[in-house]
Amino acid sequence: MNFDNINILIVGVGGQGTLLASKFLGMAAMLAGKDVKVSEVHGMSQRGGSVVTCVKIGDSVASPVIDEAQADVMLSFELAEAVRWLPYLKKGGALITSTQQINPMTVVLGRTTYPDNALKALEGSGASVKALDALKAAEECGSAKAVNIVLCGVLASMVEGVDQALWMDALKAVVPSKFYEINEKAFKKGLEG
Length: 193
Fold this sequence. Notes:
CATH superfamily: Pyruvate-ferredoxin oxidoreductase, PFOR, domain III
CATH topology: Pyruvate-ferredoxin Oxidoreductase, domain 3
Number of domains: 1
Distance between the termini: 16 Å
Structural class: alpha/beta
Helix content: 40-55%
Number of helices: 8
Order of helices and strands: EHEEEHEHHEHHHH
């Protein structure tokens, strides 16, 4: 995959850093000379609700919105969110997901249950699934909050033609300097897979 024409859907819950991830990917694409459109489609980030951002990259991008079955890649920070937004991934698209499970408010309140076998359902969907314990990887780098950057590193390992120095420049542009070292470690951890 490359930055010539790619639609990336980023899904998670409030507080996981979906917006930072979209800014990071967008900055990397801009530094690579591409047109980028970023949009928050749905979100209740202050309340731990579902948050979705779209990043569209290409030579010329008209709309920031990704419709159903139009995402080439989905970055998911939480398993149930991956299941919820799976219809937006193209048939055979790439799904990069953390195996982390965060109970939504409906589960906490006892109104529903967390989806059984979420990972198994994703793997049986026809998508190319890369699942990893991104929370553990982020903690090993010094901060549980770096899950987003670990997952961006996994995506970067799949993008051809973008030099690692460009990714580092993009990271420096979007992450406060006092958090750069942890995020650099997290990104490199994701690159390693």
